[in-house]
Each structure stands twice: as C-alpha cells, then as structure tokens.
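Weekly puzzle thread! Below is a chain. First person to post its structure in token form gets bragging rights.
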Amino acid sequence: MAEIKKIVLTGGPCAGKTTALVKIVEYFSGMGYKVFTVPEVPTLYSTAGWNYLTPNRDLYYQGERAILETQLTLEDQFTRLAEVCTKPVLIVCDRGALDISAYIKPEEWDEITAMAGTDANGLRERYDAVLHLVSAADGAEQYYTTATNATRYEKADEEGLRIARELDKKVINAWSGHSHLRVINNHDDFNAKLSRVIKEISHVLGLPQPLEKERLYKVEVIDEIPGAIESEITQTYLVAEPGCEVRLRRREWSRGKVVNVHRSKKRISEIEEIETERQVDNNLYEQMLQQADPYRQTIRKRRQSFIWKGQHFEIDTFMEPVSDLVILQSKGVADEESVKFPPFIRVLEDVTGNSQYYNYNIALRR
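Winning reply:
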C-alpha cells in the first residue's frame, strides 16, 4: 500500500486557502505524489441552499450534523482511493472535521460527534497535520475581500473584520491539542505565506528542509495577553546518536486534554535537516521516559500562544530547570520582515541564534 498522509488546510475567512490548494497540487504532483483534495463541505451545503444564519435552530443543527457526517464520509472515501494508488499519496482536506465546532454550541457539538460515533480527540487523530492560515482580517486588512467567496457572511467592514478575527481564533482553538498544528502568518508578500505552506507540508512528508533559525527574544509580560491559548509543557530529551536530537514532549491543556509527541531532528548537511514527529499514547510515553538523556534535565514551562497583527507568537515561561526566564518565539516570520511586537510585551534582549537559550542547552546539567 502507498504511503498516505492526510492534512487539513484551514483558517479564518479570506486566508488564502483556495490559492494555496492550487499551489499544493502543482508542487507536490511535481514531486511524485498523487494529490487528492477533499472539497470544503460547508460551502457545498451553503451553495446548495442551506444557510448557517437561519433562525430555524432545528434546521441549523441538522445542517451541522449533515456537514460532519459528509466530511467524514468524503475523507474515508478518498482514503480508500489512496490505498490502491502506487504513488505516495497526499490528501488535503479543505477544512477538517473540527472546524465545525467553531460554529456550533459546545453541547450541540458533543451531541453530533457522539451520533457520528466519535469525539474531538478521535477527530484530531484522523489527520497527520493541520495548517491554519491566518485570516487577512488580522494584520492584512487591505487584502480582505468577500469577492472570492459568495457564501461568506463576514463582510469587509469593521464589524465583518471583527467577526472574521473571532472566527479565526475559534478555529485555532478548536484544533489546539493536535500534535502538528502549525499557524501560517500573514506576510507583506503573499508568496511568502504560500512558501510557508509548502515548507510545512514538506516537513510532514519527511522531505529535507533548509535549516531555519527561529526568532527568539527574552521578554517580560507587562499586561494580560488577549485570547491566548495556555498549556503546560513537560519536555524530556532522550539518548540519541551523534548529530541527532530526540525530544519527548507532553503538552496539557485545560479540561484534561493531553498530547504526547516524539520528535527526532537530524542534520544531513550544513544547510539541511530532516525532522519527524509522531504522537504517542500514554503507555508508550512512560516507556520512552526510560531512555531519558542522563546529561539533561526535564524542562517544564507554561506556554501562551496567540496571534497579533497577523503574526503567530508563543511565549514560554520556564519553571524548571531554570526560573525567571520568559522567551518569546515569533513563528514563521520571513527573514526580510519585521516582528510586530504586541504592546503587552517588553523585549529585553534579542537572543536569536544564541545557543544558550535553545531548549536543548537549557536542559543540560551544569
């Protein structure tokens, strides 16, 4: 059977998914992959006459239930097609099952997932990766338009932009807990956004990628972070061969949501590396802890993730083995772009490229 990878391409209104899908099909078909694209199911229903703004709550509820069931059926059918292919297969879902939860009450969401014989955790595990393209309504307002989607209700006015930003954050929150959720920033040049999408999918497929320095800043949080998604991270480094870094991470969110991820990163040249990730269950996680690197301590930190002016940030507040250290990472900002620091952050020092602040070295026993 061919190797099959299934990813979700999602995001808020006017995020560039349609253009990105065209680029994905063209690029990875040229790399020897059979690419299937699962169409956006809510749009199928909207163009067929269903309206999620209907005042008829029963009609709305049954519509969302139908969308979920259709989504799962379509994905399963494309997976069956993939299983008889001779080439490696990439299945790209134009939105995924968990997107629906951003548009429905929590209790209704629990009901329709139970009727479908699943739950939020089961739905997350259906996908190898989730790429969230940030809405143009957040940081790229000049490009926000409804012209490319006749069924879009978030209009290009101040109220529409506000609704679009809220939906964007709700969708990210719905997918938080996925072991390979990546948020794709808005960029001054849209091609940079598309390049980031290609890079992240290449990473999922295990294709070599150029080495990239994350932008790191030692900071102080001086005010509340609006809309931040908070989690607790326990990070253990495992014994590995020279030139290879292996990390075991447990990440916990509110309401008991826990995800364990095993990551291996190996440099194959001066300019390229291969990075692989896989989710592991609690039993395997406990077994793998027996392989902990005796020369490195366990890292414990609190993470706050948020979007500001179209850029995705993560703030890590370390608790062990160091304290009083707060590091901000600006995710996916192109080399030629400036970081749009939010007003609730005071930057103390730019530590980009300073190996002293790499987690791998912070864990080193002194």
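Puzzle host: Confirmed. Bonus trivia for everyone else. The chain has nine helices and 15 strands.
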